[in-house]
């Protein structure tokens, strides 16, 4: 511990003091305060001294320093105790709590905020949205509760005027999943009265100073606090707008926040409400405020006025209205203001709990959820005038001190004695006698107060004091002026003194009876329950009771508070506690002043010196032998996985001897006791190392098991898959065989037979099979064709491959004649003569194609010609001169053919010498017959037979070269055109064709 801080800062742990005495304790505490070391350990208890200044020791870097570290590894800090509580919760699956105690102004609220900040920072490294939301809610709830539950006192600028205990729930992974807040005894009397120099709750001033003007106008209030009777004595404060934002983040709706503003404004207006008397009638002097409150409370004006001036009383079956006196009306007004604020505060806590509480958590599915509790409750108070609230607050501190004594001192000593461990007894002050003085049945102060409140007739505070004098006259810790007539510090019939563990406190009984009865007229409850504002209605459920309904007497404020304190202590006792003991260095909030006498008094009543002595004499850790073995047995080969020694105690001895810790432990009857934290931390480190190895081993074995299981499943699946594939393949082949068995005898050779759907693995096989079938089917069709028919089929196939999808009509359905000029009766004789002569001269084998055409001559004019294409030449002929050849073009000089995508008969023959031939086929019978497909197919088939390539282009316009000049031919339709014809254009030529 101490090795991490130089001795110039004093001892980091009071257990390390050379001599345990009050002077040495105070000297070490003072030295550390002056050196800026505000935290010091007593073992696992943190002593915190309020520095009264901001300190840069809570940053993210500091969080990382303490995260996952043991207490002794870093200098004392709140983060260390928070981390210890978190680790204990996570490691041992045990609920823990952090109890923060000390005087008002000692820094308890700030400590609780830093602890919450640390827990939020170290959880959920992956920043999952839901966990982040819960953490944000828990942190923001602090801001809201401070605004409505804290106030400035003469001792503390941010004093908690209520007790708060927060449970934070964690899932099995250690991530926060929700929480629950319990509040205790809000000091609601502060709403209507504050001592000089003090303020009411922060919420009023934040509303006045921080709200926009539009909101203030809607609430009929102004920014000046001195304009309101209830809060005018309070000082100024800086506005804080973050509270409304925090409420929105938590989940309060806009209507709910607006209702909160309205209730605060109503309370301020109530304080300004005054009553007067006109004869026997009590009147409201400033009735305009009644109208304002009616608007804010969403009720009727006459109902508000009636509730303030009258009280409805049931006498048997009769109901009468009793008018208040001026004093009764004022009392009722103040009681309403206090009750409205208290209900508002409890409703806010309830709403926060509704939002942050764990929902839909099933331990069987999600694992056990564990809890860290953080208690931030009022500190011990001694004011100039101490009333009922201070009495309850100091009783609460007595209960918490009793718990500290019981858990840290008394139980420790009793356990050592029970286990037979050598032990030096240490005297300590047991404040059980004071707790009994307050809460004991029939004799305690609370019982006497309740009895006084139940008496028939007019009950006064003096009657209560007389009851105390009668029952507690012989008690050593109680005195009054009647019992000590010479003690002039006590007033007759007003004061009594209690000797608390923290010192003597004089209480004034004035107001005890009224505050304990906590009377609020039923008329106010009905008024607010009948409001049309649903939020306000929820706060006053008992308002639905009829005036004639008989109900049980409600529990008094003292009884309710006593029951809640007993429940709180039982809750804390069921958890593993960690303590933060806060010390206030001075009463003037100075960051430099250390009032030794003031601090010594706190050290005495907090029992810190006794705590040091117990710690030095005792053991840091104890555990039953079976549980100890369960956690640490993996460290030793003699205990892992199970031991064969005589008992668990022998096994624990063997384990610790093997680790070399035998000198630092003691063996009780049922438990092993470890003296120093260092030994425990060393055991934890060894365990963490072994757990890592064990986890790796288990992961290896489990992964091997999973791999074998996956392999067996995969192998079985593959066997099944293989068998299934074989079955599907065989089924498919059998089905194909069945369907195509008789195709030879079918008329269409099986063309109409539907192919079965193949399995995925046979899709390529099916494609090949279809291809084979198609070839067989085609071969079957063409094997009986004549050579001429075969040539025609090949030409049609070539045409289909070249033009399919790009020209609508290819003439595939008709017989291709080829030599159309030979078959014309008008030209057959002269054409046959010319053809014979050309064949004799050029030695061609056959005519591929012949047809009349319209062409463009070299003078860019259109003229009629005929085209004869043989297997060697392309001839242009003049039909007017008995088809005399005009020009011969060798076929090897033709490089390509271009046609348009329309129904026209435009053909462009491309040549090597860029002297393209542009023609339009004509003379078709019937007139709409297309010969483009025949021409292209015939040429392609011939070129393919000679293993030459012919380029075929389909476009509009068609690019070509005329006499070496680039130009284009465009096809256009024209209505009333009799036949296709060419015309010159800017870019080349236009072929106009009939549009109908």
From TrEMBL:
Q: What is its main location?
A: other
Q: Which UniProt keywords apply?
A: Actin-binding, ATP-binding, Calmodulin-binding, Cell projection, Cytoplasm, Endosome, Motor protein, Myosin, Nucleotide-binding, Protein transport, Repeat, Transport
GO terms assigned for molecular function = actin filament binding; ATP binding; calmodulin binding; microfilament motor activity
Q: Where is the Myosin motor domain?
A: 9-688
The record's GO CC annotations read:
cell cortex; dendrite; early endosome; microvillus; myosin complex; perikaryon; plasma membrane
Where in the numbering of this chain does the TH1 domain appear?
A: 805-995
Binding residues for ATP, per the UniProt record? Answer: 102-109
Region described as Actin-binding: 565-587
Q: Does the keyword Zinc apply?
A: no
Q: Name one GO biological process term.
A: actin filament-based movement
Transmembrane regions = none
**UniProt subcellular location:** Cell projection, Dendrite; Cytoplasm, Cell cortex; Early endosome; Perikaryon
- Identify the Gene3D superfamilies for this entry: 1.10.10.820, 1.20.5.4820, 1.20.58.530, Kinesin motor domain, Myosin VI head, motor domain, U50 subdomain
User: Record's PANTHER family?
Assistant: MYOSIN (PTHR13140), UNCONVENTIONAL MYOSIN-ID (PTHR13140:SF417)
* Family in the record: Belongs to the TRAFAC class myosin-kinesin ATPase superfamily. Myosin family.
Q: State the name under which the record lists this protein.
A: Unconventional myosin-Id
Q: Which organism is it from?
A: Takifugu rubripes
Which classification does the entry list for the species? Eukaryota, Metazoa, Chordata, Craniata, Vertebrata
Supply the gene name.
myo1d
